Amino acid sequence: MSRLAPGADRLARGTYLAARRRLERAAAWIARARRDDLTGWRAALGCWARIALLALGLLLLGRLIRALPALMWLLSGAWLVSAWRAGRPASAEAADEPSEEPPTEAPAEAPGEALRALLLEVMGEADAVHLATVLAHLQEKGHWTGRTVTDLRRRLAALEVPHDRSVKVRGVPTWGVRRKHLQEATQAPSPVPTQETPTEASTAA
């Protein structure tokens, strides 16, 4: 039993992570359907339509499995592979991805400023953006595959990029960033010093 325990733990962890990622992506996809040019229940019609599409897809999948029970073996195998990959140890992820920084077009910038620029780019003309939307944008570009919103939150916290859990976009509150906070952090006269700054200051003195 002890030999099987690590593999079982990895599958259990991967199943949880894979399910959470799919739920986060589905929630972000539904939230993007809300219209800013409308108010009340009309603004949320797109969200309800996408929820109905997801429910219909699950219903059709259930009927298909009932008609073709052998299909369950294929789906189960695909899910096990996905869970196994998602549950790989953090050391393996670090070896595959030596840098956790989201890619930007200006590598010479400080990591915090580059990340703020990326957030503003994804935000577009809006006043805020959900972290799930930012993560989906990165993964569409082939970056941060297998990561979660929690991973992105940790990266933001490490780089002291302001974010909170009550950001509303199209009426849906969740983790995100606001344009005004990003601009305030960028225009601040006394930015948080890096680790090298105290050394440089003492040398100059």
Helix-strand layout with pairing:
Blueprint: H1 5-31, H2 45-67, H3 71-86, H4 90-96, H5 111-123, E1 128-130, H6 131-140, H7 149-158, E2 164-169, E3 172-178, H8 179-187, H9 196-204
Antiparallel strand pairs: 1-3, 2-3
Helix pairs in contact: 1-3
Major sheet strand order: 1-3-2
Principal-axis shape equals flat
Annotation, overall tally of beta strands: 3
Largest sheet properties: 3 strands, antiparallel
Name the beta content range.
5-15%
Helix content: 55-70%
The run of helices and strands is HHHHHEHHEEHH
Low-pLDDT parts are 92-100, 102-108, 189-205
Q: Could you tell me the radius of gyration in angstroms?
A: 21 Å
Description:
It is built from nine helices and three strands, in the order αααααβααββαα. Strand 2 and strand 3 form a beta hairpin. The chain is mainly alpha-helical and 205 residues long. The chain has two domains: 5-88, no CATH class; 111-189, Orthogonal Bundle (Arc Repressor Mutant, subunit A). Helix content is 60%, strand content 8%.
